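Board notes (copied after class):
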Amino acid sequence: MNILTLVWRRASDAVRDLAPIIAVIAFFQIVVLQQPFPNLADVLVGLICVIAGLTLFIQGLESGLFPLGEAIAQAFARKGSTTALLVFAFCLGFGTTVAEPALIAIAGKAAEVAAEAGVIAPEAAAQEAYAFNLRMVVALSVGVAIVLGVLRIVMGWPIHRFIIGGYVIVTALTAFAPDEIIGVAYDAGGVATSTITVPLVTALGVGLANAIRGRNPMTDGFGLIAFAVLNPMIFVLTFGLVA
């Protein structure tokens, strides 16, 4: 397919995907608030940047990250070393989560709010330490979650037992955790599974299910993200109890 045709198709898809939110914002700004857009030129430039970024991001996923993740998973499956596969799964989960921009943002904001509330010292060093520790806890939890998810695919265990058991643990920890950490813990699962983690982890699961005889990519390949959403809540609630 011609590269220009491909880029045009991706850009058209990006415009279509963004159209609903653009329509909502325009409706409330013009009809409900009845005010002109502030800095309309900057808004339009920003919108163009968003469309271009989304176009390149989706193309990058399909051209690079998804094939790479599936190829690595299949290579580990052919190698036949479960230990090496689990070590890779942990490193992948930990490394991608540490780099998540959303996690970096929420960890910094959580540190600021904790300092304002008197939970930690207001000094910059204390806030940086709090944000860093929170990021490491979430990254560690996602690493463990991906290990559990990969082990589930390898062994053929049903996913619902893990998810139900995990949320029972979350509910129990919520009853004892400090109030100021509960909201952060519940948000941690969402921000840990964002633009970097989701594509690679999904590709790992699907590629692994494709490579193991007797596994169905649809029923066994998906579900790793559910582990990556659940485990940070458990770890951050525990972090709040300990710290």
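Comment from the instructor: The two ends are 55 Å apart (CA to CA). The mean pLDDT is 86.
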